[in-house]
Design a protein that fits this description.
Blueprint: H1 8-38, H2 43-70, H3 77-84
Helix pairs in contact: 1-2
Length: about 80
Amino acid sequence: MSSFTDQVRAKRVIHIQYVFDYMMVVFICLFFPLLTKLETISWVPFFIFSFTALALVIVERLLDEKVKLVDPQQPTRRDVKQESF
């Protein structure tokens, strides 16, 4: 995605998007099994997983909008997803 633009700020935002995505995946992979193993309260893992998924969607949208503000010609990840289906 960052190869489509020459704007340094847009490349940084795109890089932050991917770093955030990978951090969330690592968070889910590491902490979700721990939460399910604790089994103290069965709904806590569900709420933490739901909150993490919601945060991922919200942050992805905010960063897509920031990319559009920095470089209006740059396709966002949402645009690419819509075109691929």
